[in-house]
């Protein structure tokens, strides 16, 4: 008979809640945490199998709040030229047939698992339902956001396409929900955002990512016009909004929960505005660094100001093209970048990589803590107990992948 309870005693347990102690212990029954804390607070548990891991730090599974798994097959790609050049090149490399998309998403799922991920916000390129089918066949939970493009005269066609595609697929089957992602304010008109909101499905978008986007929305000119022309997506009915993209989308974002990726360029006044909206931010530190955002004469990314203002900021990886880890996709490496670059607080980083992402995806955040109750998974990392450095900092200065102790569930 297998033992249904396991007592892990480890060098340290850590989460984004209040359960970080060294040494630590976790009593797990199947996928439920019965107790977590100091080993002496749990004591001996006679009916539990005991697993001693004195050189491991254990934490909850991670949440990736913005990924493009269907681009995984392209691999890490050195940056080239302008953002418009990059997008153009990307479109020529993306898989266009169902088998190619499925293989890329499967690889992305495998690499996400290697990275300790249990929950993911995945962007399904150009409205394909292959990614959601592939995700639903995997151990990961989350949302597959169908990405759509449609501006100017093409909005009607785009709204109709969204309606058709979402009719064809069960919206809430199991642990991967269907969502919609109007790509960006420069590639989608306000009617497309309105229709996405009316659908009642989870909503996501890229927002305030580049200065070119801000220029385009603010004054209706700049290099993105050439990009839209290149894709046959430009027409003369597309007008400037005369304001920042965040203000341009205010009528949508003020009342509807939305997961907005990047927000590299915001004004001071946006902090209070965004805090009052039901908005989640998916900050992708490596992607922002890859594209050089925010540019040096602009304020560094405001994620800590956002958090201090009460805005929910989670972490995303964006696509494999921007990553320096060809063998895994993990927000742990985003946490490492922020720790290395900004000396960001490890506990704050853990929150961003776990509970904040769960909240942004509408999932119970306690599943990504060590609080008693169901847990999405437990992952472990090697630490050196003889090293004076805090074990949580040790894993942030290291670069090893995590291993699964339990899950994902
Ligand atoms: Zn993206």
What would your notes on this structure say?
- The chain has 409 residues and is α/β, with parallel strands linked by helices.
- The protein has two domains: 5-61 and 369-406, Urease, subunit C, domain 1 (Roll), CATH 2.30.40; 62-343, TIM Barrel, CATH 3.20.20.140.
- It is 34% helix and 22% strand.
- The chain is built from 17 helices and 15 strands.
- It has helices at residues 39-42, 83-93, 98-114, 130-136, 155-167, 190-198, 211-219, 224-230, 245-248, 250-253, 268-276, 285-290, 303-308, 332-342, 346-353, 355-360, 391-397, and strands at 5-13, 24-29, 32-37, 48-60, 62-67, 117-124, 141-148, 176-182, 204-207, 258-262, 279-283, 312-315, 373-374, 378-382, 403-406.
- A seven-stranded mixed sheet has the order 13-3-2-1-4-14-15. A four-stranded parallel sheet has the order 5-6-7-8. A four-stranded parallel sheet has the order 9-10-11-12.
- The longest helix is centred in the first third of the chain and has 17 residues, at 98-114.
- The protein is globular and about 75 Å long.
- The mean pLDDT is 94.
- Bound molecules: zinc ion.
- Zinc ion is lined by residues 66, 68, 123, 206, 261, 318.
